[in-house]
Amino acid sequence: MFASETWSLYVTILLVVYALIILFFVIRGNLKTKNMDDFAIGSNGFPAWAVGLSLAASMTSAATFIINPGFIALYGFSGIISFGVVMPIAIFASLIFFTKAFQKHGSTVKALTMAQWIGKRYDSKGLTIFFAILSLLLITFIVLICVGLTQIISKSLNLEPCYVLMGLITFVFGYTMFGGANSMVYTNTVQAIIMFVVAVILLASGSEYFSNGFEGFASLLSEIDPNLTKTTNPESFLFRDYFEIIVCQIIIGIAIVCQPHIITKTLFLRSEKSINQYLTVAIGCMSIFFLVVVVGLYARLTFPDLSLDGTALKMDELVSAYVVKTFTAGIGVIIVAGLISAGLSTLEALIQSLSTTITTDLIAPLSKKETFNQVGLNKIVIIILAIVSFFLSYDQIVDPNVSVAIFAQNGVYAYFAAAFVPVLFGIYFKKVSKNAVFIASFSAVALHFIIYYGRITPYMQEPVNNPGVSAAIAVVASFIIGNSLYLISRKKT
């Protein structure tokens, strides 16, 4: 058992109160949701600060607060550099680079989804369908978040993960089908505020380890494993050298912004004038959120042999165990609220984005009727997504073949590797052929999976490999292919 009876009682009360707050915003949002436009991007523009907090909450997830600190607990400083420094800087730079231009183009083409935006930008229904199909890969990220949330809640309540997973999916998918963007922006705002408070508490929780300064902190880690204090870790499969730690993470950080639940946030804004405030709020919050990976080092110092009461701790259990062991029940429930918020905020955005894409870009075009109830159809899609997500998540909990983080990364990385060129070229290049875009995008997906599963390059020779390497190579190759085809077409014209 992870938690005491008092702890479990407090968490139960927290979950009830949290659910009521969420339902308040869902009911409020549902009253404003009359059609798919309302569900996808809201009935009217939202305040910039609220959308900024929503982006921060959606951009960071259970992976940021639960999964990634687990990697840091295993591999140390090398992971901090990779996940806590290099990737965030690349993400912030990419957001600044893409946001204003995408918002301008998004307003022009009146797109509800990423797939729709790409299709309209290049005047190609085929590209819309292609990216709508590719968006199904994002269900792997949904699985990651469901597994992470299930772990923290089940450990806090001393319940079987299966029942927690079932209740979690029923609740989240259930309320998401009614509120859409009109509720999501405000639930994300509340969640981001809670996450910020919790991030500060978590970061401060390890202050005792710094009683002898940073050198003393590093010395404690080195006593457990000297590799924990090195800038590269040859024993890991993620942080072996600077190519993985820096080069790959820069490329991934730049391209990761091209996910539909991230870049389309700009379409929620009232005007182009509010972008600066939106970015300032989002980047400020995310700077703190990304630093939470440091808690992984606190967890390793707390559980030096990676076990609790003689039972080995899985990577995705380390943060949960650290929270339960370190904090009193009163403070602990606040921490649990933050961890839940980190997961739910991204989960809501993914469900909303993916269901909208499936409904409007895959199913609706097949209908011969000019008008039909897309909102009702969208609810059916969400129910199907819930069922699929449950079985995939349950499988990852009871019989994982690979880390759930790697499972998710493979899917998500393949998607944004394919989306990078269409978004970049669509914003900044003129008269780009749809064929060039398709070939570049298809090449990205194919290369990513061929390199990863074909075990191509020295980085792909371990039982579990780093999807960031294959995705980074795929992004660069896709850009070279797309740019080459673009230049060739310009010479012909």
Characterize the main sheet. 2 strands, antiparallel
CATH class: Mainly Alpha
Provide the CATH superfamily.
Answer: Sodium/glucose cotransporter
Could you tell me the number of beta strands? 2
Poorly predicted spans? none
Q: Give the helix tally.
A: 21
Helix/strand-derived class? mainly alpha
Radius of gyration: 22 Å
Q: Estimate nothing, just give the exact number of structural domains.
A: 1
How would you describe the overall organization of this protein?
- The chain has one domain (5-401): Sodium/glucose cotransporter (Up-down Bundle), CATH 1.20.1730.
- 74% of the residues lie in helices and 1% in strands.
- It is built from 21 helices and 2 strands.
Secondary structure blueprint with pairings:
Blueprint: H1 5-30, H2 36-41, H3 48-59, H4 62-75, H5 77-109, H6 114-121, H7 125-134, H8 139-157, H9 161-179, H10 181-204, H11 213-224, H12 242-255, H13 260-263, H14 275-290, H15 295-302, E1 307-308, E2 311-312, H16 318-326, H17 329-363, H18 374-398, H19 404-428, H20 434-453, H21 467-492
Antiparallel strand pairs: 1-2
Salient structural properties:
mainly alpha; 493 residues; single chain; 2 strands; globular
Provide a quick synopsis of the model:
With 493 residues, this protein is an all-alpha fold.
